[in-house]
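pasting for ref. prot 1 ->
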Amino acid sequence: MRKPKKQNKIPFIIMLIIHSSLLGYSFYKTKNKKQLFTLLMADIGFAYLLEYVVLNVFHAYTYKPKIIKKNFFDNVFGAILSQGIFVPFTAVFSTFMKIGWVGKLLLGGIYFSLVELLFLKLKVYKHNWWRTIYTLILIPLYFNISDWWNILLEKKNPVVRFISLFFMILVTEANLLFLFASTRKVRFGAGKFHSWKEHFIIVPLYAITLSLFSTVTFLKQNNWSVKISVFLMTIGLDQLFKKRKLVKEKFRAADYFTVRILAIFLYGKFSDLVYGVRKTGEKEVVEEKCSK
């Protein structure tokens, strides 16, 4: 007898509860919530870039949470849960708790490998060319990168702060674009027919381009001229993709401008979070403070 499809989501829901609890505990206990949030977004950004290569380009595995009707979106949504929640939330918890290499191997490698094997058995996840040994090796390394990143954030390393802001914007753009695609508002691709396979290869490149420009623009200031520059660049990039027939959109102008303006204001807040609140023509005047 076949398992009802609706049961596929149960393992994902259980994992969501477990790992959200770990992250919630970390935020509850930490004194520096701003830095922990920055670290979280950086960890998610790293995971998204890896997932772009491993899943979108090389199709290493397939998720089957059966939450979204269309299989392609369901697969990507499963990857978002895994790489945007389960693994990064646990990495932040590991860094916050100062877990050593043995703990990283147990919590990261062995735990996630066992979860992966269970998901394979439950048939809510399938390997194409991926192997569990890769999970066993890579996740403890990823947890160690999270530790190293947090140390450099504390030291206000300029490269790490820049990349962190880039990741914060990239993660937001990626999630927005997934929402737009899943509601059939936008589809990227080449030629007259834009396949979803093409979409999920091209759309990260669009998000990376926009995020990199926004990061550079917000690097020294967060004022109206910066926001207008990012807004104009966004419109210009959209027009370029339309002219090259690389995107099809079904936005109402009011909805498009509302979302874009709100996103740009959010990116300004991210900039202040990473670099502190700045005044025009001056260097940082208010550094990050521990939030209560």
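and prot 2 ->
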Amino acid sequence: MIQLIERAKGFTEQEALVSNGTSYTYGQLLESAHYVAAHLLSGKPNLEEARITFLVHPSFEYTAVQWGIWMAGGIAVPLCVLHPLPSIQYVLEDTKAEMVIAHTDYIDFLSPLEKRIGVSIASLKSILQNRSTQLPNIDPEQRAMILYTSGTTSKPKGVVTTHANIQAQITTLVSAWEWQQHDYILNILPLHHVHGIINVMSCALWSGACCEFLPKFEAESVWNIIKSGRLTLFMAVPTIYYKLIAFWDSASEMAQEEMSKAASKLRLMVSGSAALPVPVLEKWRKITGQTLLERYGMTEIGMGLSNSYRGERRPGHVGLPLPGVEMRLVDGGNKAVKENEAGEFQIKGPSVFKEYWQKPEATKKAFTEDGWFITGDIGMLNNGYYKILGRDNVDIIKSGGYKISALEIEDVLRKYKGVDDCAVVGLPDEEWGEVVSACLIARDQAIDTKKISEWLKEQLPGYKIPRNYIIRKTLPRNVLGKVTKNELKKMF
């Protein structure tokens, strides 16, 4: 039994989704998902974990396809609508998927793959046609979904979660963030990623709440929806908050007042998927009265830690372990570290993924002998709250015997007048191992980096001061707004 879908049967007359200006009830969602399942089964009793890929805009139809795959006993593999064809082909070949369900907009785009790798393309319209069948019973331990990692350090890996894993990921957030049936949330996040699928859409649907899709982000559209008064929650990545602030800054005083008043009425606003710069948190709080709730999660674990819904939300920190999540902070020998000492986050619990798809060695390496998932993220306990220092092979710079957090230096650099944003990396160096190097996004392309270094000496120890600077207009980012630091290193 898929509990998420079973619960929907208790809300059949309620509004579940708003998509392309149309409102859909839970009953309509269940009916359309049944049509999808019937077409996929075509007389078979169970898909038996067949991988079904789909390329569909964030929409009511997306949700119906995902639920239909689950109802039929398949593994849902959502594809990113912004990815180029080679990235799509990689996922299809890696999962050995025999079918792609595609929106009309993507059928021509995908058609070269029919001959190239023998995959069949089913139109979304045909899959949603009225059809009935007997649905199989689904075991909670059955594989349900494969999401691909961002591949920032190696080729993307398929993260396999079971129905039980997904249920645990949803229920821990529903409990911690106090989701209610009357809640209403806007989904502006990519739906090939845990943030959009679990934190926003699935938590809403578990609760009997409503999720509205906005397939394309536009700051003005988002502000208009906030001003409508229908939202109770909002979740986004830091770059979206940055763009919403920029739009607010450019508005008239009267419009600013209207936007600020509307945003202040939401019960919860969350930031995640990338580190939230403290200046962005502070500016958002200043203009809306909302302290963004920052949390920590990964494709492999769902969400692991969160600042408090009702208590303190400390800037630059990710709070404490969520209900049902076990967490430890350890050194290289898997021994617990003391407070204010850096260590690696390791996670245990029912929300942790089952395996990397068809990669038993990678799966084995991802866990300790006693079953803890090795996140690769470095952090510390700081006055009772956990703080992320960065990813071991991306944000931790090893220079002259020191382990330096790139995120810490970035937070300080953003306070310098004239620096709008920045990213810090370690570049290979024969003498030091790596040297600290900073890319600055500055209004004045002739900004004086010598003055910046002098100013930084008053804020940071000498070994943390960047040796190299480059000035650019934008930072390389993935679809979630996370800086792709390996791409950034090539720019120096």
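The longest helix spans residues 26-41.
The CA atoms of residues 334 and 369 lie 10 Å apart.
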